[in-house]
């Protein structure tokens, strides 16, 4: 059954992947529109600031951590009973700042600084217009604004382009989302269909639901496999004929071959699905016998093999 289901999933892999991509694209179109509207609201030429370089960002984070440590120190000294003047003398923080920190319930983050005028400001509208027209080459844009009178360097100009590139990347990611079945493998997917649903974790359940939603064949396979699994675990071999009729009606070629194999040895299959007895014990003894035989291969004859088998039993 597992081999037949795996082969069937492999044959309908293209259907599963394309349907999953179509569904994801339909959902992503709304996300793209939302992203565009949000970007239009948050991005303005008046507040267009360059992306800070790595050194400036590290310095800012360092100052923030030092300030936060001073804030924690002020709270500790205040709980110990020190006055604001004594705290200011110990920490080097002004009493005005200490009063503001103690009045606030949480650590007061510093607000954004006002945008400073730059040599790029007169050309921001032109760069944004060219960007929206599809020109994404930074060197070409720099040459165009230099012809208009821009005197800044390529490094500073590139930092102004970084917010536009990040915005474009965000829109591109929203338009081409990572679908759960993009790297679908029939060998892995078969175990999502044949296992007990209660044994699947949340991610596996989500993938299994996406798989059944993306393909009618996969959904039919899941229903038939789970019904056969129920017959096997609850020993209801009397319902085998009913299940075989459902498989024939599904017209899934791989399962039709499985049905032919079941019909060929139907009496044994019904007995396996009905009776509590099985040949597991016999198979275990045969496996043990073969192991003992291979351990003595080339070093002993039948008399020693006989003694070892008798003592092993």
* Global shape: elongated
CATH architecture of the domain at 51-112: Orthogonal Bundle
Question: Which consecutive residue ranges, at least 5 long each, have pLDDT under 50?
Answer: none
Tell me the number of strands.
0
**Strand fraction:** under 5%
- Tally of alpha and pi helices: 16
Q: What is the class of the domain at 51-112 in the CATH system? A: Mainly Alpha
Described by strand count, sense and barrel closure, the largest sheet is: none
Please name the CATH topology of the domain at 51-112.
Answer: Arc Repressor Mutant, subunit A
Overall structural class, as computed from helix and strand content, comes to mainly alpha
- Integer average pLDDT: 81
Order of helices and strands: HHHHHHHHHHHHHHHH
Radius of gyration: 36 Å
Give the helix proportion (percent range). Answer: over 70%
Q: Separation of termini?
A: 35 Å
Oligomer: single chain
Characterization of the model:
The protein has 313 residues and is mainly α. It has a domain of 62 residues: Arc Repressor Mutant, subunit A (Orthogonal Bundle). The protein has 16 helices and no strands. The chain is elongated. It starts with a helix and ends with a helix. The mean pLDDT is 81.
Brief summary:
This protein is mainly α and 313 residues long. The protein has helices at residues 2-11, 13-42, 54-79, 84-91, 95-103, 124-132, 138-148, 154-175, 186-194, 202-214, 216-234, 240-250, 253-264, 266-274, 280-295, 302-312.
């Amino acid at each position: 059954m597992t081999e037949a289901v795996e082969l069937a999933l492999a044959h309908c892999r293209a259907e599963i992947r394309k349907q999953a991509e179509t569904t994801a694209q339909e959902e992503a179109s709304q996300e793209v529109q939302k992203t565009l509207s949000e970007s239009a609201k948050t991005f303005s030429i008046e507040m267009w600031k360059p992306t800070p370089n790595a050194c400036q960002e590290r310095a800012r984070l360092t100052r923030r951590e030092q300030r936060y440590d001073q804030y924690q120190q002020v709270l500790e000294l205040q709980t110990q009973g020190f006055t604001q003047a004594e705290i200011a003398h110990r920490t080097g923080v002004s009493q005005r700042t200490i009063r503001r920190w103690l009045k606030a319930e949480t650590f007061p983050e510093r607000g954004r600084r006002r945008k400073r005028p730059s040599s790029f400001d007169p050309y921001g509208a032109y760069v944004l217009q060219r960007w929206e027209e599809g020109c994404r080459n930074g060197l070409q844009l720099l040459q165009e604004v230099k012809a208009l009178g821009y005197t800044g360097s390529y490094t500073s100009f590139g930092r102004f382009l970084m917010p536009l590139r990040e915005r474009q990347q965000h829109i591109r990611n929203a338009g081409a989302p990572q679908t759960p079945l993009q790297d679908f493998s029939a060998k892995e997917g078969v175990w999502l269909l044949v296992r007990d649903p209660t044994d699947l974790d949340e991610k596996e359940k989500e993938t299994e639901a996406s798989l059944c939603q993306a393909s009618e064949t996969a959904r039919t396979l899941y229903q038939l496999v789970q019904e056969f699994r129920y017959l096997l675990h609850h020993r209801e071999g009397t319902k085998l004929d009913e299940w075989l009729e459902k498989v024939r009606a599904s017209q899934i070629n791989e399962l039709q071959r499985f049905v032919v194999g079941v019909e060929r040895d139907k009496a044994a299959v019904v007995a396996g699905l009905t009776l509590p007895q099985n040949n597991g014990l016999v198979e275990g003894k045969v496996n043990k016998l073969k192991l003992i035989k291979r351990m003595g291969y080339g070093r002993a004859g039948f008399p020693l093999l006989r003694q070892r088998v008798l003592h092993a039993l």
